[in-house]
Design brief:
- By secondary structure, the protein is α+β, with helices and mostly antiparallel strands.
- It is built from 25 helices and 26 strands.
- The chain has six domains: 61 residues, Helix hairpin bin (Helix Hairpins); 232 residues, 2-Layer Sandwich (D-amino Acid Aminotransferase, Chain A, domain 1), CATH 3.30.470.30; 104 residues, Nucleic acid-binding proteins (OB fold (Dihydrolipoamide Acetyltransferase, E2P), Beta Barrel), CATH 2.40.50.140; 82 residues, DNA polymerase, domain 1 (Orthogonal Bundle); 82 residues, Orthogonal Bundle (DNA polymerase, domain 1), CATH 1.10.150; 79 residues, BRCT domain (Rossmann fold), CATH 3.40.50.10190.
- Strands 2-13-10-3-9 form a five-stranded mixed β-sheet. Strands 16-15-14-17-18 form a five-stranded antiparallel β-sheet. Strands 5-4-7-8 form a four-stranded antiparallel β-sheet.
- The longest helix is centred in the N-terminal third of the chain and has 24 residues.
- It is globular.
- The two termini are 42 Å apart.
- The structure holds 2-(butylsulfanyl)adenosine.
């Protein structure tokens, strides 16, 4: 993979992953399996590992979960709620243990106790007790800040309102809120009878139940809680993970009965296999086994790497599988024309869910696996909706089967030519695109969906189905037409309210929602245009740089646009090229001009003035391992003090904070004669401004 291919694939994956994050964390309605998500994330991380310049503060690798939703109050976690690194096989577990020993300088023959316990498939929650009384319950949120769900959590029977026995003055008990299978089935039965939403799986049901604004609804939902870790705390009731969790039980919490202390790797894997064997009989969903270093003093020494502790890992179970027949391969056209093959399967039940579609990613994936129509295929899912094909059963292949021929033209009515675009080197990962751009009706519909989506124009009530319908009947075929819809409708012989399935109220609400978006922030507007490689982060960079859309547009249409746009901090050559190409297409200019006649693009806020802040004017790079802070924390602190934090060392850099393991960035800083501090030195700088640093 070349660097430019990496940039585009990284951006693509980032968009895809963010979309899935929203559906998982905010909508409680995931569309792909955990396994598929993990695979996408692994690829994303692998690209970052090979091209570290792609790692920015906005990288998904720096984030845990999703930002808290706005409907609940927010709670800042005094101790960050982090995530767990994953191990997918025994060699990952071996690497994990070796890493621990290396870090602690601990020879292989010295015993290292670990705990092993089920990884509960629910949502984590932090419960703060002061003087034994539950005072705040918060979801994980983005790890730094979660939602205040105290009133709802207080209704959960297995969460004590008051602790029993010997507890410290202050303790945040953390664990997992989940729903038992029997409770899940009963809830869905009731929901069905009332004509209410049916939940896809127990985890979504638990999340949906916890995030009710009315605690009475949560109280009526059967949620359970297992305590397994802690945050802010006074004196702890033990020196080991195992003993502290046992103490939780004495205070009145449910703890998982399968938790074990292990003295060796083999014991850990034995526990893993035993738990996996009993998995179906537990009565609740688990998706792996979590191993933790037992000795808390060692845990403290090991600390964290950006988003997860070095002393713990989740050893995932392999996903559930089933065999079925591939009936057809449909080609879906995406917003940018990318053609995605979708496998149409003979419906089959996997882990209790009926599956009829599977993703096939792209043409090369089909070739690589040599998947053919009529084949018996093994599919895999892990508690969710769109599964993937893991293998083809060649022994059962029909004698007359032929390799799948990818179409030469777009399946749209225009039958536009298809172009093949290399993403990976050596022809791997190439994407086929419809060359029609906005002439292709399929792309136009997808473009409209993107335009109205939550992170773009966010037009409430104008969902994918309605957009498809309005597009098909010609009501809305361009973004600008969204904003003329109500005026045209008022004059129309067949006004919308007469249409089947659209009540008076929903039509009025839709028009109001559209009206509410007539003024839009620059960065949203730009993101909504759907220019390739221009995601939310880039849109923000552009908006801040140019302030007004008119100024940006002039720059993008200028003769040397690519060169000048590439000068902007945060915009690389590929993005600059894509922006310039977009603004050199007459059809796009027309679309934008039409739009500007009906919406106002607000000027972008200039970044808050940091003049007079203690570190104003400083350009700082963090490199190597940090112990006391995560990268995110260090960065946030520096920014609060007025500094700018960047990822690569250049002549503009004024300070490099280098921890152990720093490599090329440290060397470059030395070569350029830039000031260098170790973490202790940086801590001193921060301490000097303690009052300000928050
Ligand atoms: S320990 C600092 N133990 O898994 C590490 N997490 O993928 C604290 N989870 O956010 C987490 N069961 O929601 C831990 N027995 C268990 C768990 C567990 C489920 C969840 C938790 C966490 C996520 C990370």
């Amino acid at each position: 993979m070349t660097e430019s291919e990496a940039v585009s694939e990284h951006a693509r994956l980032e968009g895809v992953l963010r979309g899935h994050d929203t559906r998982y964390f905010e909508d409680d309605a995931p569309e792909i399996s955990d396994g598929e998500y993990d695979a996408l994330k692994q690829r994303y991380l692998a690209i970052e590992a090979r091209f570290p310049a792609l790692v920015t503060a906005a990288s998904l690798s720096r984030r845990v979960g999703a930002a808290p939703s706005a409907k609940f109050g927010k709670v800042r976690h005094r101790v960050a709620m982090l995530s767990l690194d994953n191990a997918f096989d025994e060699s990952d577990v071996d690497d994990f243990l070796a890493r621990i020993r290396r870090f602690l300088d601990m020879p292989a023959d010295l015993p290292l106790n670990m705990t092993a316990e089920p990884k509960i498939d629910g949502l984590s929650c932090s419960l703060r007790y002061e003087k034994g009384r539950l005072v705040v319950a918060a979801t994980r949120g983005d790890g730094a800040e979660g939602e205040n769900v105290t009133a709802n959590v207080a209704t959960i029977a297995t969460v004590p309102a008051m602790l029993a026995g010997n507890y410290p003055d202050v303790i945040e008990v953390r664990g997992e809120i989940y729903m038992r299978h029997a409770d899940f089935a009963a809830l869905n039965q009731q929901q069905g009878e009332k004509g209410d939403k049916i939940f896809a799986n127990p985890r979504n049901a638990a999340a949906g139940s916890l995030r009710q604004l009315d605690p009475a609804i949560t109280a009526a939902r059967p949620l359970s809680f297992f305590a397994y870790s802690w945050g802010d705390h006074g004196s702890l009731p033990g020196d080991t993970q195992f003993d502290v969790v046992q103490a939780f039980a004495s205070w009145g919490f449910a703890i998982n009965p399968l938790m074990r202390r292990c003295a060796s790797r083999d014991e850990m894997l034995d526990v893993y296999r035993a738990i996996e064997r009993d998995r179906a009989r537990l009565g609740y969903d688990i998706d792996g086994v979590v191993y933790k270093v037992d000795d808390l003093a060692l845990q403290r020494q090991l600390g964290f790497v950006s988003r997860s502790p070095r002393w713990a890992i989740a050893h995932k179970f392999s996903a559930e599988k089933a065999a079925t027949i591939l009936r057809a391969i449909d080609i879906q056209v995406g917003r940018t024309g990318a053609l995605t093959p979708v496998a149409k399967l003979e419906p089959v039940t996997v882990g209790g869910v009926v599956v009829a579609n599977a993703t096939l990613h792209n043409e090369d994936e089909i070739k690589r696996k040599d998947v053919r129509i009529g084949d018996t295929v093994v599919i895999q899912r892990a508690g969710d909706v769109i599964p993937q094909i893991v293998s083809v059963d060649l022994a059962r292949r029909p004698a007359d089967s032929v390799p799948f021929a990818f179409p030469e033209t777009c399946p749209c009515p225009l039958k536009t030519a298809i172009v093949r675009e290399a993403v990976g080197s050596g022809g791997s990962g190439a994407i086929k695109r419809c060359s029609g751009e906005l002439a292709c009706p399929f792309q136009r519909v997808e473009h409209l969906k993107h335009f109205c989506s939550r992170r773009a124009f966010d037009i409430e009530g104008f969902g994918d189905k309605l957009i498809e319908r309005f597009f098909a009947d010609g009501r809305v075929t361009t973004p600008a037409e969204i904003f003329t819809l109500s005026a045209r409708d008022a004059a129309s012989v067949s006004p919308l309210r007469e249409e089947e399935g659209l009540g008076d109220l929903s039509v009025r609400n839709l028009f109001a929602a559209i009206e509410a978006r007539r003024e839009i922030a620059f960065e949203r507007f730009l993101y909504a245009l759907g220019i390739r490689h221009v995601g939310e982060t880039t849109a923000k960079v552009v908006a801040r740089h140019f302030g007004s859309f008119a100024a940006f547009r002039a720059a993008a249409m200028a003769e040397h646009a690519v060169a000048s746009l590439s000068q902007i901090d945060g915009i690389g050559p590929i993005v600059a090229e894509a922006i310039s190409a977009f603004f050199h297409q007459p059809a796009n200019i027309l679309m934008v001009d039409d739009l500007l006649r009906v919406v106002d693009v607000a000027e972008a806020q200039k970044p808050a003035s940091v003049d007079g802040a203690p570190l104003a004017g400083q350009v700082i790079v963090f490199t190597g391992e940090l112990v006391a802070f995560s990268r995110d924390e260090a960065r946030a602190k520096a920014e609060r003090l007025g500094a700018k934090v960047t990822d690569s060392v250049s002549k503009k850099t004024t300070l490099v904070v280098a921890g152990p393991g720093a490599g090329s960035k440290l060397k470059k800083a030395q070569d350029l004669g830039i000031a260098i501090l170790d973490e202790a030195g940086w801590l001193n700088v921060v301490k000097d401004h303690a009052g300000l640093s928050g």
